[in-house]
C-alpha cells in the first residue's frame, strides 16, 4: 500500500544523483540505510506463508525468534507484512543516513492520525483506487461496511485482516507509541545482530546501481533499465501521478519485491544483487547457484515452458498447472530471483510473467569459467 513525497536531497552514500532527463520515465534514486533494512526484516518475518520462500531460510527465522524473545515476537505479529512495508515511506522522509534512531524519531514526529492513515495506505493513489472513494477514511470513522471492504481487499490472509482491524480499532496515539516501541526494540535486539553483514552487501549493491545510473555501465544508462535490473526483470510503466522512483536494496526481503507509494514517489523495496555477496573468489557465483537450483525442479521447468509461448498472470499459470497460488508464488520467486523471468507491472491488473530471453544466455560460459578458475585456485592452495 502507499505513495511518496519527492525525496529530500541526500548525500552520495544514500542516493544517486538524478538520472539524465527522460520525459518518458521518472527520476530514479538508490536509497539505503539501516532503517530500511529493519523494515525489511519486520516485513519478511511477518510475510505469512510466503516466509517459506525467503532466501535466508528457516535458520534466519529461528535466530530472529531467539534474539527477539517471545514477548517482542508477540507484539510484532499483531501487525502484518503490509503494515511494516508502509514504514518505508516514513524512512524515505527521514534525513540521511536513515538509521534506526532516525526512523524512531520520524515515527514520533508524525502526528498520530496521519501515521495511522499512512499505514493503511491512504497516502497512495494506487491503494485508494483499489477500494471505493473515501473507504479508508470511512473505515477509520467507524463505518462497518467500509471496514469490511478494507479487510477483504487488503487482507488476503487472516493475519492481514486482523492487522487492519487493529489499525482501525487502536487509539491513534497508542498505535503510534506501539509501532515506535516495536521498531526501537527490534533495532536493539535483532537488526543490530545482522547489521554489519547486511549493510556491507547493501553498500556494494548500491554502489553498483549508482554507477549504472551515472552511465558507467554500457547499456544500463537509463533509470528504466536500472530498475529492471534491481527488481530482477520487473518492467514498470509509472502512472501519471508518479514523478520519482526510489530503489531500496535489502538483504532480509530476498527474493521479494514490494512497491509502496507516498504521494508522487514509488519505493521499490527489493533484493540486493547476487554479486553483492560474491566476496569469496573461490565460491561459485550466486546467480549460477540460483539458476542451477531453479532448473532442478520439474514444475519450474514446466512454468518456463508455458511462459515461452505467452505472458501469463499467476492465476493463469496456477490454473494451467493445477496448483494453488501459494505454491506457485514460491516457484515464481525462485525463477525470478534466478533472473529467468520478465515481469510486467500492470497496476491494478497485477503482474504478468514471461520467459526472460537473456536469462540463460551466459550460464554455460559462467559455469565453465568457474570450474576452470576453481581448479586453478585449488592447485594454488595445495602448493602454498
Strand line-up of the largest beta sheet: 1-3-5-4
- Counting structural domains, the number is 2
Q: What portion of residues is helical?
A: 40-55%
Tell the overall outline: globular
What is the helix tally? 17
Order of helices and strands: EHHHHHHHHHHHHEEEEHHEHHEEH
Describe the fold and architecture:
Strand 7 and strand 8 form a beta hairpin. The longest helix has 42 residues. The chain is an alpha/beta fold and 384 residues long. The chain has 17 helices and eight strands. The strands form two sheets. It has a four-stranded mixed sheet with strand order 1-3-5-4, with helices on both faces. Strands 2-7-8-6 form a four-stranded mixed sheet. Helix 1 packs across helix 5, helix 6 packs across helix 11 and helix 15 packs across helix 16. The protein has two domains: 245 residues, no CATH class; 106 residues, Arc Repressor Mutant, subunit A (Orthogonal Bundle).
